[in-house]
Specification:
The chain is built from 13 helices and 5 strands. With 331 residues, it is mainly alpha-helical. The protein has 2 domains: 210 residues, Rossmann fold, CATH 3.40.50.620; 78 residues, Orthogonal Bundle (Tyrosyl-Transfer RNA Synthetase). The strands form 2 sheets. The chain has a 3-stranded parallel sheet with strand order 1-2-3. Strands 4-5 form a two-stranded parallel sheet. Helix 8 links the parallel strand 4 and strand 5. Bound molecules: tryptophanyl-5'AMP. The site of tryptophanyl-5'AMP has 27 residues, from strand 1, helix 1 and helix 7.
Length: 331
């Protein structure tokens, strides 16, 4: 039987955080044996907000090296850059004709980004979810492993798949978001009710995957908490709850185990332990990423073979779509 397909991507639009790692990449690694996986660098999504071209190019390669350093195996999954497979833009165009302006203008991320980039509310920003739907539907993906903030986008991909299938006959697999507990919403260290984000202006709010051990420990030391000095998760303690979540995700333990371990201990020792649990995992990833970045030939080969694989799958779906909508096949 054919394996089920997994699709996901990250934008090369800033310094990746431990939220990106726990909400997405770490879970991708766990799925690569069981599923047929396509993982992209979403550079076409990234340009919906202003990017420095040289930096975008550099971050694209850094992200591929990071994928590999985190344990993605190019023999098992297709790793590629979105703009290298032209079918993404082509399918996006067709899907645009069944996506409604009303539903796109109501998307949370569109509203947030429009507020944040009021000087640049471009069509691409509004069309972001349709391009994302094209990504997913091109590969007939069954599951899309993402953090909780992307749920709404996967839902619109589902809606568009169903709408297209109803109008033109069975064409797309209807995808489901795969949001795993624990790492699905890692919060800011400075405002623990908000998600941790690559684009936060306060560098102390996020732990970047490039942060060295001392920086990681310092940022956790400064993390905002309450003052009752009891290491226990609860709704009225978002700071401590977030730190416990991070600790459990990096240590692979349950909340009860972590609470037991820190019972009677003060916040200072707890924060240090959280920092160490994170640094122990990300420091070796950084070393491996650096080693890989020195071998551009290898990275080029990985991307070429990933794009070839993606292209074949994408072409199959796109020609089906073109046939269904009545495009004349001239050559
Ligand atoms: P991006 O680059 O914003 O985020 C990449 C992934 O990281 C997850 N994430 C988090 N998870 C937990 N806690 C956080 N604080 C946190 N911050 C980010 C995101 O949910 C995401 O899974 N639109 C996508 C990129 C994309 C995509 C796709 C994803 C483009 N095409 C097709 C899936 C399928 C995005 O915003 O990525």
């Amino acid at each position: 039987m054919d394996k089920k397909v997994i699709y996901s991507a990250v934008q090369p639009s800033g310094n990746l955080t431990i939220g990106n790692y726990l909400g997405a990449i770490r879970n991708w690694v766990r799925m690569q044996d069981e599923y047929d996986c396509f993982y992209a660098v979403a550079n076409m999504h990234a340009i919906t907000v202003k990017q420095d071209p040289a930096e975008l190019r550099r971050r694209t390669l850094e992200l591929v090296a990071l994928y590999l350093a985190c344990g993605l195996d190019p023999e098992k999954c297709a790793l590629y850059v979105q703009s290298n497979v032209p079918q993404h833009a082509e399918l996006c165009w067709v899907l645009n004709t069944i996506a409604y302006v009303g539903e796109l203008s109501r998307m949370t991320q569109f509203k947030d980004k429009s507020q944040k980039h009021a000087e640049n509310i471009n069509m691409g920003l509004m069309d972001y979810p349709v391009l994302m739907a094209a990504d997913i539907l091109l590969y007939q993906a069954q599951y899309v492993p993402v953090g909780a903030d992307q749920k709404q986008h996967v839902e619109i991909a589902r809606d568009l798949a169903i709408r297209f299938n109803n109008r033109f006959g069975d064409t797309f697999t209807v995808p489901e978001p795969l949001i795993l507990k624990g790492g699905a919403k890692i919060c800011s260290l400075q405002e623990p009710t908000k998600k941790m984000s690559k684009s936060d202006e306060n560098p102390n709010a996020s732990i970047y995957l490039t942060d060295d051990r001392d920086t990681v420990i310092r940022k956790f030391k400064r993390a905002v908490t309450d003052s009752d000095n009891v290491v226990k998760a609860s709704e009225d303690k978002p700071g401590i709850t977030n730190l416990l979540n991070i600790y459990c995700a990096f240590k692979g333990c349950s909340l009860e185990e972590a609470e037991g371990e820190f019972a009677g201990m003060g916040y200072g020792d707890f924060k240090l332990a959280v920092g160490e649990s994170v640094a122990d995992v990300i420091t070796p990833v950084q070393a491996e990423q650096k080693r890989l970045l020195a071998d551009k030939t290898y990275l080029g080969e990985v991307l070429k073979s990933g794009a070839d694989r993606a292209y074949k799958a994408a072409r199959r779906t796109l020609s089906k779509v073109y046939r269904k909508v009545g495009f004349y096949e001239g050559n």
